[in-house]
Fold these 4 entries.
Entry 1:
Amino acid sequence: MTVTGYVFLAAAASPFIYYLIAIYSSWRFFRRPPRTTFAGPASLPPVSILKPIRGSDPDAYENFASFCRQDYPNYELLFCVDGKQDPVVPLLDRLMREFPDRPIRVLYGSGRQAANDKVSKLARLVSEAEHEVLVINDSDVRARPDYLREIITPLCDARVGATTCLYVTTGEKTFSDRLQTVGMMSDFYAGVLVDWQLEGLKFALGPTIATTRSRLAAFGGYEAIENRPADDLLVGRFIAEQGYEVALLPYVVETVADFHSLSELTHKRLRWIVVMRHMRPWGHLGLLFTQGLAWSLAAIAVRPSTEVAFAYLGAYLALRFAMTWMIGVHGLGSFGLAKRSLWKTLPLIPVWDAMALAIWLASFTRRSIRWRGADYHIRDGLLVPVFPPQATE
């Protein structure tokens, strides 16, 4: 074999280095001792929980109700929906009836015109919130009673500008749901934890962002990003640029699985990866060196032998399974929420990797994304409608 062949075989092993870093990062993250907690409720500031809503998610009422059962001394719950005809409104009315002692308010409409409807709702929610400390989370999130204590306590450290946490899906019913879970445990969280290990978190995860009104105001608030995608990434980035830590907590919330088809999962993943190509271009390009399955098959094609096949495919499967176990079972399983039955879906890892590679390659051909029923280009970090609304006389 030529020198070029040996160089290629060495390059084909680069994903294995990444996998080893991911395994170490995951081990280190989940073995950290918990942050110092404060003794009593007097140390805990009042909180406003902000929820931008559009339509009704599966198990929406139970998701909302979980935030009314928090073991926390003083907090309010604010929702913003499009209008009184939104199908989620009867659920919010029920919530207020069944939790009369919990301060709950419902706002109708953002009062703004913006490409990112969720962010425009958040801009109004922040302006209407009563408290300085804010918790932003998605409508499909379900929390345990200790949620607010766990995510707010680190904010009492003046060095921490925001907290965020991991999440696991519950109520999986379809093949697409299970495939999504395997992708989260073996792929997405691996990347998050490697980022945490190498440079500290410079973004936040949408299911939970806890911060303060002043931290948001320092970069212009949600009004400054209401025409941009990836608001969770940007909020974390802009808070980190202020010199504060974005703390990734070893804590887990649940989200309700709702991928009804493989096509739906593929389109959502493609939208996310296209946004990443624009928002974190070097990180997007670096995904090439995480594709262990593709590199292993390429190595076998360059040097077709039993020894090479056994070495590369064996290393690929062993390390990918080890990553998934470290994150999904050893790490998240300690919370009693993650998938201790994840072993049953480990054979889906190569399926996910093949799909993720195809989507990554397809992302280079996409010039637009579909968001909330409309098509947008991403230009200079902004969402620009493919078909601008027609002016009316």
Entry 2:
Amino acid sequence: MARRSVEVFAAAKSDARVAIAERAYYRAERRGFASGYEVEDWLAAEREVAALAGAPAVEAAPKRPAKRKNGVVKKLK
């Protein structure tokens, strides 16, 4: 029984990856395939596919605090 679950999950994950790749491609195409936006296109496509699947969107990682010259980390407000 568990083997079947793994196979179904793997197939669904593969289908999602294909859908993400297609959406990222079309986003790049609309922009004229300008370089430097590959990651942004992929992440936007992931959010779109997750929204269509009803899954919660993956949020961007929080920004790291900037370091000062002496290595002391600034406090975030």
Entry 3:
Amino acid sequence: MRKYIYCIVIVLFTQIYALPSSAIDIFKRYEKMIWIDQIQQVGAAYEHGEKLCEFPIITGDDETPTPPGIYVVRAKDADYYSRTYDTPMSYSIFFDLKGKRAIHEGEVPDPDLKKELATHGCIHVEQPYIEWLYDWAEQGKTVVVIHGGREGD
């Protein structure tokens, strides 16, 4: 638990220049947080500072990155379909409406295969984790912290 809190504090201080007021009081403003560690390709859900769930993920790569930062869940759509990529993106939890980036259901390959695959900037989470995360996250009340960048796996 201390390891994750330490990592969160580091991320918050590195983001403080971009979002000074919200970075300082993030824990006061949001009871729920989705932590995305792009370096380890793992996500976690926290409520009141307690980790509830950890799950494997896959994010974007150098060509189609998932930008690190602090976001808020802006919209949710259980049956979203991307016309751009002509594919279903079930259980979409949108954190970046302008960039059309979301946490959604998608394949998360074994670590050896991750090197060859990436998303288009979204975050893939497999069942049963994505359905639980979708039900648990609240629009406007859950913060998404994306740490690091995806490096050569």
Entry 4:
Amino acid sequence: MEKEHYIDLLEKKLWDRVDAFYGTDDKVPAPYVTRVNINSDDWVQYTVDNFELAQQKWEKPKEHYGTEENLIASINNRLGRNEHNSHELNYGINGNTNDELVELLGEENIDKMGIQLDGVLIRLIVNMPGHGVAWHHDAANSYFRKFPEYGGTLDDLTRLWFSVVPGVNGHVFQIGSSMLYNWQAGDVWHIPWGVPHGSINFGYNIKYTVSLTGRLK
């Protein structure tokens, strides 16, 4: 980092723009939903067997984002979030990975989360130490692209999050005002629409988590 860039950040205070954008949404807590039955070894092995089908992603504006989402992504980039600290292996879009992950999760677990079996979108995210998901919010853009025939609204959908491995040192996930850590594999939390969230792996183990969008029963 150059001194000029550092001074520019201090003068522009981009973090104030993010605070103003979210208002009080970042004060909303994350409701705990349930615990689903997870075999951690199966999920980790899936990432090995299907490595070539993972999207390799990092924080940046994207074509399928809305204007608001790209604004936050751009600010994150200017503040230093990039491929060097927000890289992830992301399964659930390429090939048949979503259908396979739905099968791996299983109908009983999906039912336990209070969502319909039809129209589930799963994103299995792998973060190496030093990487995480930058502070952002969701508007189900990927869901609407995956299921263009879906005729409902966000009110008919829910966004859920869980880890497929037990929590270990340095694995943290924040949803609104809720700071999550030391979880059990399969502990499920609800991410309310519009509520900002993000994660970090400042530990020494690989972090494996799932973001899931489904249709409410």
